[in-house]
Amino acid sequence: MTTAAAGGADEALPADRQRSGGTSVPAPRKGGPAPSGSSGRTGRSVTGTRRLIAALFLLPALVLLGALVVYPIVYSVYRSFFDQAGTGFAGIDNYRTLFSDDTIRTAVKNNAIWVVFAPTVATALGLIFAVLTERVRWGTAFKLIVFMPMAISMLAAGIIFRLVYDQAPERGVANAVWVGVHDTFAESSGFPKAHPLPVHPLKAAGGGAFVTKTVVHAGQPVQLPLVGVLPAKMPGDAKPAKAPAAGEDGAVTGTAWLDFTKGGGGKPNVIDAKELGLKGLKVEAVKGGSVVATAEAAADGTFTLPASADGAELRLPASNFKEPYNGVDWLGPTLVTPGIIGSYVWMWAGFAMVLIAAGLAGLPRELLEAARVDGANEWQVFRRITVPMLAPVLAVVLVTLMINVLKVFDLVFIIAPGSSQDDANVLALQLYRSSFGTDADLGVGSAIAVLLLLLVIPVMLFNIRRIRKEGRR
């Protein structure tokens, strides 16, 4: 009877709500959507969109992808097996060139240096900036300043750092700072490039020093005239030169001055009224190869040596005339690659900082506070909690920068001067030079492009696996 009642109830229900085995199952409507399991038979996707319509919307993007990405890749692989003219099959000769040509091997080595150091340093700085700016009131302003270089194009950044690394301290900021620090702790030369004329009573002594042509005696004033002193190197408090007073107790006296009269009219070896003394010039009395006395010229160029200088040669040591310190050759063969990496870090540390700061803002603060309550210091909290929890964000930043540096071209091309461009060479620059230079070889250029693709693929695969892993969490 119960069964009959149930059967009667089924008959009373609408056709789309009849029971099946005690469960109400909706019957398919006429013309309505098919159940999800039958989407393949009706030509619709899970969301109900017809696949043909979806394909039509995707077609323009697929055409552009094929024309701009797939075709160039396929053609580059094909072209890499042909010779320079593109008419003869070269096999793997172009790939052999990649590992036998010194210039290309330097580019490969430099790319390895870039991949190892540039992303690591930029990510580390970004992490430090992101953590520290959380603790200061003006953190937002600091982040804005650090991120600002990202608004500058690679071309503009290259021009900026070409000027920063200029060898001349009056133009290059890096060398201006370096020279300033050096001159603070090391005494600079007083009169670089100063020298005597053949008519002067001085001669070269080797090593940049000058000595008198004859020995000197007490009561006979010594003349030490020089020329070639730049106006900028003349002491600001130098006075008009004058003849020395007679020495007492057998002392040797003399005058060191700039034997040059502005506007002309002066005479060699004669102290004229407009000629200035060489204040601070060091004078040594030498007997038998040993220095027996020293003196320093006064503002008017006069100096006095004790009686022990009688019968000695007077020497002007090379320290008076050495060239001024001009700093470091930042764009020379040794430092050009680290210098360019520094400019890259300047640009991209802000990018790393912003991404890491976003990840840092999402960390659960209760874990950090609990660690501090348990007695952990800030370094332990940073090393054992903050960094491990930021590992996914750090991986994103690191992988993104690695892909970016494999393609770096602009900075190297602009910053490195022609004399050291071979030493700073990277694969992207060599690809340009091999493909579009004066002696272009498109076969080698295509092989370099394929090599770059092969180097990028592992990093991209790692990134894809990481994204899928994150998506499954």
Order of strands across the widest beta sheet?
A: 3-4-10-7-8
**What is the terminal separation in angstroms?**
53 Å
CATH superfamily of the domain at 101-173 and 330-440: MetI-like
* 3D shape: elongated
Q: What structural class do helix, strand and pairing data support?
A: alpha+beta
Please tell me the overall pLDDT.
Answer: 84
> How many helices does DSSP assign?
15
Order of helices and strands: HEEHHHHHHHEEEEEEEEHHHHHHH
CATH architecture of the domain at 101-173 and 330-440: Orthogonal Bundle
> Quick one: biggest sheet?
5 strands, antiparallel
Explain what the structure shows.
This protein has 473 residues and is an alpha+beta fold. Among the domains are: 101-173 and 330-440, MetI-like (MetI-like fold, Orthogonal Bundle); 202-320, no CATH class. Helix content is 48%, strand content 10%. It contains 15 helices and ten strands. A hairpin with a 2-residue loop joins strand 1 and strand 2. Helix 4 (93-100) crosses helix 15 and helix 6 crosses helix 9. The longest helix has 32 residues, at 102-133. The model is unreliable at 1-25, 28-34 and 36-40 (pLDDT under 50).
